[in-house]
Amino acid sequence: SKLLRRKQELKLNEPPLVPYKYPIIGHTFDYYKDTEKFLNKCVEEYGEIFSLYIFGKIETFVGSKLSPEVFKNDKDFNFDIAFKEKFPLERFMNRTDKYFAPLPRILFTYLSQELPAYTERVQRTLIKAINEQIGDGTILQPPLKTFQLIIARPIAASLVGEELSEDKELVNTVAFASSDFIPFISIPPILNFIYPLLHQKFVVLLFKLINNPFKVHREVIKRKISPVVEKRLNDMKRDKESYVPPIDILQKLLELIIEDDYKADIDVLTDYIITAIFAATHTTSTFLTNAVHQYANHPEIQKELLEEQERLLGFKTGPYYTTEQMETLVKLDSFFRETLRMTTSIVFFEHKVLNAHYTFSSGHQVPKGRHVTTRLQEVHRDEESHGENPDEFNFLRHLGNPASRVEKHYLAFSFGKHACPGRYFAANEIKNALHYLILTYNIKNVNEEKAVLPIRGPFKRSSDVGLIFEKRKDINFCN
Ligand code: HEM
């Protein structure tokens, strides 16, 4: 039967495999040296779908036409499994696969869908953090680290409560836990040249052997949430009827795992929280940095954006805006959506084929186990979906189309069943930060340099170009 299966596999109508010169190495170096240029050349010659030989495995690449099939057919394509081959998060924590499966739903239901419950807290903590970090004006060079510290405050306040968001040590952990991890996931998987998944084994081993920053951050979270959890359990136990549960994600997780005798496993809670932090901080602070750089890169759009912020400020009655008031900032929202469209990576979303094979609408077939990757930048520059001059930054391009709305050709938050559950929260948080920054400061790049995103292989990271913040006016927020 093995032979028969092999025969069937051979009969698949596979996408063209781009020819290469050196065995084993295949396209690895050409691909990493200048991913954009190399992929463009392949598209020119082979069209919408083709395969490359990278780090010892054949990988198929799709663009605007076929990538929607990958996101829509979640029974055929799986992102999680492919992602965890590089970043086996559960294994780092000695947890079983799918251990954190309930987390996306909890974040979606109790954070993204409950924005009004968090809106004051987000504004209060953001403004405190911005005043602390930027104050009467400063130069941030490079800016990402400071934006991580700023973004960490509302994230901590929403995940584990506002009291802990005042704790410097905890905020530091929320700010840097995921970026301290990047060196680990950026090790090129050269070991896969020897055999598939050897790299994953190596990373897990390395992780367990050395005293890595993750262990330090984990210890901080556990130590900080322990007394909070203990108090909550005691309060619950003492008077179940009149207990008023605090509003944050820690509470929802506690309710998920609590046992009959009012006990809860603090290690489980810690690992859930650190997983949420991994997903939340680095993404949000990277795109906030990118947005501020785009603002500084384009002085010609500043007047119009500023006017919109001034107008909302004029309507302000209480100390905080309501969620509905924030939703009137349609130009700021479109500006943020354009930032996401223009600054995401060149490729992303490696998915693994789950079933015997998958047949694309083009007739091409990919076998079980194949990784299929989306040429994200190409999708985001699709003229039919995004309008004319798709390579240009046009901040009003998406008026009326919210940044958090996912679409088949707008994949910053992914698309389909596994789209980012934190996207409403993230977009709201970033717009709050931008609103306050734009009103309070004149913002420029150091030396009027244009901030361009550095590229490493297929991935982009935020620019290190310095940002100058000059106080333009004092705004009496939340008094
Ligand atoms: C601008 C900010 C953000 C961006 C661009 C973003 C983007 C994404 C993307 C592309 C995915 C799909 C899978 C992946 O690539 O890892 C994802 C998944 C996820 N995001 Fe976000 N995200 C952001 C903020 C957040 C925040 C603030 C939270 C939590 C409060 C969050 C929680 C998650 C979780 C839990 C998943 C996994 C979903 C699943 O496996 O079904 N994200 N995000």
UniProtKB/TrEMBL annotation:
PROSITE patterns: CYTOCHROME_P450. InterPro entries: Cyt_P450, Cyt_P450_CS, Cyt_P450_E_grp-IV, Cyt_P450_sf. Its cofactor is heme. Coiled coil: none annotated. Keywords: Heme, Iron, Membrane, Metal-binding, Monooxygenase, Oxidoreductase, Signal, Transmembrane, Transmembrane helix. Its main location: membrane. Heme binds at residue 420. It is found in: Membrane. The keyword Ribonucleoprotein does not apply. GO terms for molecular function: heme binding; iron ion binding; monooxygenase activity; oxidoreductase activity, acting on paired donors, with incorporation or reduction of molecular oxygen. GO terms for cellular component: membrane. Pfam families: p450. Belongs to the cytochrome P450 family. This is Cytochrome P450.
